[in-house]
Amino acid sequence: MKIIQEGKAKIRVPELREIVSSDMPVFYNPRMRVNRDLAVLGLEFVCRKLGREVMVADPLAASGIRSIRFLKETDCVGKVFANDINEKAAQIMEENFRLNEVPPEKYEVHREEANYFLRKSWGFGFDYVDLDPFGTPVPFVESVALSMKRGGLLSLTATDTAPLSGTYPKTCVRRYGARPLRNEFKHEVGIRILIKKVIELGAQHDIAMIPMFAYSHLHYFKLFFMKDRGAKLTNSLIDQVGYILYCFNCLNREAVFDVLKVREFCPVCGTRFSVGGPLWLGKLWDEEMTDFIYREAQEREEVSKETKRITTLIWEESKLQTVGFYLLSKLSEKVGIPQQPPIRKVVEFYEGTRTHFAGDGFRTRLDHLKVLEKSEELKGIIERRLKGGV
Predict the structure, then answer these.
(1) pTM for the complete prediction?
(2) Separation of alpha carbons 74 and 71, rounded Å
């Protein structure tokens, strides 16, 4: 066993393996630090919104690091309910709560199957649930939605990014009821498919799971959803589900809400469109929450530098919420741009903003024909410069 410090929490965990796998009884993955930082910031957001003490559930708690950080880094948590079906995990959690001198009345440790743990608390109601499974979160989402209070926040992680991003399309269809697109913005497509699925699972009970914040990093997706109720509001979310038409030849993309308006061929080059979806076509970032997370991250010493960097990038990206983005490398390959300029110059040239999804990615409100036109213009500028021209 060894002791690890993260944020304001310290935990005792077994010696770390280099490769994390689902067969490990209790694990701590240091590469998920940004994820846990965001979980704390999301909790602080819902605390400020509700203006009272909140009840928090950590149904797949493992070492208990999230639960302890929730208690140590916020002052609004009434109690944390930490659960893990593994007996060894429950024992280590108890030790870690004591190691951090958490008062016994501020936490409960449970050892139950996660769905049962959540569903038995329907009448109780959680204000914040952090769901961080190994793989897909789908088996747990409906239980979470039913266990939360109205106005509560779900912090959700998915590590099965390969199916969602098009590596295993049949798995994506089977698990999420949607076709992925393995293109330059495949991770955004995966996030939009996951959002659609969460909305569907809540909608079965007239629960509106409103997307609030989206993040892609390494091999996982991180999402936040605010819970509300009512058929009308739920219908308004479903109305924002549709399809993405994508041309692998000229990189054209179109968002279509009505399946009857899905056309077969690209109007720019005549190539047959590939179709992704159904998926969420609405906003990925709630402006109020994104602004809060960005500003709160900058002020907190316990938040990692990487989290500060990423939240800054997402805050800038959220100002221009398009469906899909461009990669300069793909445009350069398509048009024949001989040398890529710095991304900051590219963003300015295309009247856009950077995206956290890719280092050379950018969003723009320019239509596709205008993007191609600007790319040809950029090609000419760079060619003249390389030849010593103006």
Answers:
(1) 0.95
(2) 6
